[in-house]
Each structure stands twice: as structure tokens, then as C-alpha cells.
Amino acid sequence: MSDFISQFWSNYITVITVAGILGCLLLLWATSRTKVNSAADNTTGHVWDEDLREMNNPLPLWWVGLFLITIFFSFGYLVAYPGLGSHAGKLGWSSQGQYEKEVAKANEALKPLYAKFDGMPPQEVAGDAKAMAIGERLFMNNCAQCHGSDARGSKGFPNLTDTDWLYGGSPETIKETITKGRVGNMPPMVAAVGTPDDVKNVAHYVLSLSASPHEAARASQGKEKFAVCAACHGLDGKGNQAMGAPNLTDKIWLHGVGEEAIAAMVNGGKVNQMPAQEERLTASQIHVLTAYVWGLSNKATPAAKN
User: Fold this and answer.
1) CATH of domain 102-181+275-295
2) Are the C-beta atoms of residues 289 and 138 closer than 8 Å to each other?
């Protein structure tokens, strides 16, 4: 951690920046002081292609003036704005602050667009074509990276178009998930289950719960060991939405199916995180996005005509 709180890199950037500007100033001064012996015709004696000669003239004053203005402007800029390592600048500007200001301005401009939907229940918002067009754009910009553009998910990322929900599929629960995020934690259970052979037996028992291909003899032996999993998944394996424990009796496998995939979960556990969106999206945007996600697997209530 010391690498991330040390002032070394801040000082390094400061030294490099100041040295670069002072180096340019020194170079300009040095060139103005350098005297080159010139011939009678005011040339340096360098000739190319028989008639191209290098004249021994000083730098144009306008060029030197612009160079000096640039250097002094650089020092002024570094005083006013960030540029010298951790120095924040006298004006207090930052890219983060600029971003937040622009987002706040954009959200303020969009308020009238969302005002119509704020007072509508999500089921009714899901029936409004305009709201769903907005919801789709919100989904594509903030959710599709994990759940896919078609919302069908992939390995490790839930399908949002079916009726299988880890934490529940009500609008209220979906809104809570989007707002606060979720952290799913399947702890390693190998110590509680027993030997590697016991882990295989449990894997086959889990497969048997959903009538997936399995070895009946191993499944029979794994049933007793499954008791240590029942605290989260239930004795019947139907899961617990309050804890985010998935239903093991259907054929929906978030992290892969088969003996090897299930055994890997038992042996190593798994932590899955859905990031909170409350700092990225406004309450109105989350409301519309909730309705969109809910509507992917539910029949919407037709929106009232104004």
C-alpha cells in the first residue's frame, strides 16, 4: 500500500515538469549567447547543394517573444491548474469536478423528460413505449456490458429475460438491486463436505435435483453431505432469495453445469458482485430502468393515455 500513498511519484512529476520548462528557457538563453564565427557574407560556412548556405542570423524577435510567452504561460497554468504532481491548483479545478458538474447540468435538463414517469408504478411505466425507449438506452449504457445487449446474460451474469431471480423479481427488489448493488458470496465448502470423493458425490446430488445427467449411486451418497449446503439452498435445494442462494432444482446454471463446474464451486466458492448504480444514475433514471428490466420478463400494464 505504501506505493499508493508515497509522495515519490508526485514529486517525480513535479520535478520533470519544472525541469522541462526551465530546460527550454535555458536552451533559449544559451542559443542567444552562442557566437558562431561567420564569413564575410554572414554565413556559417555550411553549404549544401553548392548554393544553399546557412546564414548566421539571430533568432527572430517575434519567435523569441512567443517562446517566452509560452514558457511564462506554462508557469501560470501550473499555478492555477493541476499539473505539478498532487498540487490541486489555485482555481480548484479537477477533471472529476468538471465531469460531475456536466452530469448535474445534463440531469437537470432531463428532469422534465422523466417527470411524467416518476409518479407512475413500474408496471405502468413498462407499458409506455417512450419510457421503454429511454430504459433501453439506460440499459445499453450501464448494464449491457455484463448482462449483454439482449439482457440474456452469460456465465456469471444472470439472464434478465427469464423468471429466475436470485434476490426476487418484484419491481421493488429490482430497484433495490440496481440502486444498492448486490454481493453474492458462496463460501468454500470443501472442509465441511469432506473428501474430494464426497465433493463429487455432492455435485452429482445437485445435478439430480434438476434431473440433469448424473450418476445415481454418487447422488445417493451425496444426499447426506448436502445437508451442509441446506443452510443457504434449503433442504429441498430450492434456494433462498433473501440470501441470494440460487434454486438448484431448475436447469438454470449461472456458473456452469456438470460435475466439474459444481465441484469447483464447492471447493473454491465464488464471490459475484453487482455494482451499485445510485452514484451513476438519478432516482428517476433508476425508476425507468427498473421498469425496463422488470418488463423484460413480465407483462406490462398499458400506460394511461393523457
Assistant:
1) 1.10.760.10
2) yes
Cell 436470485 appears where?
166
pLDDT at position 76, please? 94
Report field, pTM of the whole predicted structure over 0.85: no
**Contact between residue 132 and residue 287 where contact means Cβ atoms under 8 Å apart:** no
Q: Give CA–CA dist 40/103, Å, rounded.
A: 67
Residues forming a β-bridge with 183: 273
Closest CA to 157 of 288, 75, 252: 252
Q: Which helix (H) or strand (E) holds 184?
A: strand 182-186
Domain boundaries, the chain: 2-80, 102-181+275-295, 185-274
Q: What is d(CA 131, CA 121) in angstroms, rounded to the nearest whole number?
A: 12
CATH fold of 185-274 reads Cytochrome Bc1 Complex; Chain D, domain 2 (1.10.760)
Question: Which cell numbers hold the place of 218?
Answer: 454418487
Kindly report the average pLDDT of the chain as a whole number: 91
How far apart are alpha carbons 49 and 29 in whole angstroms? 32
